[in-house]
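Quick note —
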Amino acid sequence: MDLPKRVEQHVSEKRSLTIIKDTLPESWVVREISERDYGVDLYVEIVEDDGLLRGDMIAIQLKSTKELKFKDGRIVLRGVKRSTLNYWLSLPVPVFVIMVCLKTRYSFWANIDSLNRQGAFAGKTKTVIVNIRRYDGCSIRGTQRFVYEYQKEKNWTIIENAIEKSLMLYNTLGPLVLMCRRKHDSERSSTTIQYLVNQHYEYFRILAKYLLGKDTEPIDIWYKKNHEHCKETKIESSPTLYMKIMKNMLSYMLRNYRDCIIVAYELVTQDQAHYFSERFPNLCTHLKYRPHTFLAEDWYARFHFDEYESETQFPELLYFKDFDELDDILPDIINT
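Predicted structure written out below.
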């Protein structure tokens, strides 16, 4: 008798969906898409411990195989249509591909937007390859990275703005530090200096969180410390920081901020060079012809510990001229 037969593909899809639902945190909302021919199978909404739905939505393309075989810590998903990729990149929410192993019930994910910025899909081929790392599994730790990657994609416009502005303005930080450190603790910061330092601090917090994975003190903490300092010393309150607090604020941020700039610099000039050359061509041109020599190892000696006073007697002049003393040895110091 001629009867309908349930095809293996439908069985695999059902099993992989069940595995994903069992793997992701129970509090998350998994919404199935009835039409799956356009590159998205699920929308997953991340829900935090307080149970509030904040619209933290991720689009998921679900793939499955009987058994996953890694090579050099990666599995390769081939034959993804470029039209599908273009659709993913046009969506207003981040897109992740999740590969499920039906044999082990393990699953692994790839962040499509991040791979695109790295140039993984460069070219004009009709299909593209998606590399999925063993490191990015849907374990407890892997899910934490999954959420971190989502947050980075959700805030990417803010992040890339901080990358551009910090790289273009980082050479102003040294003179600012010098001018502040040469002031007496009892002096107040000028409004202009306070504004410039606050801008750097804002970029520092964004980049530290999303490039280094580090949480930092909000800027309000330093204004609170300034208020407490005024009460303890019985000095006049001030809307700008006294230099004693300003110096502590700068010391707190400088080391990690410098590390942030190094990571950002490598993203723009190496890891995601193609993306940034299209997104911020002027930034890339400036960095090509004026590399960040002030990231060299002597940055702290020069600007923080003030060991080059004969060369930095007038730090305000460093705002307006190119620092070219190290041009002869640029290749040796650019990425120190």
